[in-house]
Amino acid sequence: MDYWLFGVWPYVAAASVLIGPIGRSLGSWRSLSDLQNEFHATVEWLWGDVCWRGGVASVLIGHLLILFFPAAILSWNRSPIRLLALEGTLLTASVLALAGLTALVTHNIGRWRSRRRAAHTESAVIALAALVMVSGLTLAIVERWASSWSAVTWPAYVTSVVGLNPDVTIVAQMPYLVRLHVASALALITLLPFTPAIALVFYPLTRVMLRAGVRSGFSH
Questions:
Q1: Residue 90 has pLDDT above 50, yes or no
Q2: Angle at 210 between CA 207 and CA 215, to 5 degrees
Q3: Integer CA distances (angstroms), 134 to 29, 97, 114, in order
C-alpha cells in the first residue's frame, strides 16, 4: 500500500496537473470570458475568505521554505527561541486557515442547496482541503518540532521522486498522521485540475500571457 500511495501516486498527481486543464479547456473554457466566469465563481466558493487565503498562503510558504532551503531551516532552528517562533507562526497560520475554511463551508451550504450539480465537486474539494488542514494541524500539535524533522526527511523524499526513484521507506516509517497528511494532499492535487478551482491559476496566468503577447507584438 505504501508503494502505491507514495511511490506511484505522486506521478498520478503530476499527470493530472497536466491533463486536467487540457480537458477543461476543451470542455468548459470555450472563450476567455468562460474562464473568467469560472474564476470569479471559484473565488466565491473556494477563495473568498481572507483568513483562509492568508492562512493557506502562509502555510504553503512555510512548506516551500522547508522543502527548498532545509539547511537554512535547520540552522534557524538551532536557536530555541527561533524554533518556537517558526513553529508558532505555522501553527497560527494553520488555525487561521481552518477558521477560514469553516467560514467557507458555512457560506457554501446555502449555495449548494440551489446548485446541486456543482455541490458534489465543490464539497469534495473542500472536504479534502479540510482533511489536509486538520491532519496537518493535529500533526503539528502531536509531533512537535515538525519543521526540523521535515527539513531532514521531505527534501530527500521529494528528490527521490523527482529522480524517478521514489524512496518510499522515508514515508513508510513516519507516523500515521504524517502519511495521512501527505496522502490527502496528493488526493487534493489530483482532484483540483479536473475542477473549476483550477481557474484560480489559469485565468491569471492566461491574462499575463496575453499581456506579454500584446507587448511582444507591439515591440516588433
A1: yes
A2: 125
A3: 33, 10, 28
**Residue 188 — very low, low, confident or very high, per pLDDT cuts 50/70/90?**
very high
218, pLDDT greater than 50: no
**Confidence (pLDDT) at 216:** 46
- The length of the chain, given as a count of residues: 220
CA dist., res. 60 & res. 58, Å (int): 5
Greater model confidence, 106 or 115: 106
Please tell me the predicted confidence (pLDDT) of residue 128.
96
In whole angstroms, give the CA distance from residue 37 to residue 24: 14
Confidence of residue 214 (pLDDT cuts 50, 70, 90): low
Alpha helix (H) residue ranges in the chain: 2-3, 9-27, 32-46, 50-68, 70-76, 80-114, 116-142, 146-162, 168-172, 176-191, 199-219
Domain boundaries, the chain: 2-212
The CA dihedral of 140, 142, 144, 147, to the nearest 10 degrees, is -30
Long-range pairs of 22-30 with CB within 8 A, sequence gap ≥ 24: 23/194, 24/193, 24/194, 24/196, 24/198, 28/196
**In a 3-state reduction of DSSP, which class is residue 180?**
helix
The topology (CATH level 3) of 2-212 is: Fumarate Reductase Cytochrome B subunit (1.20.950)
Query: What pTM, to 2 d.p., does this model score?
Result: 0.89
Q: Is 133 exposed, middle or buried (0-12, 13-18, 19+ CB in 10 A)?
A: buried
d(CA 20, CA 194): 5
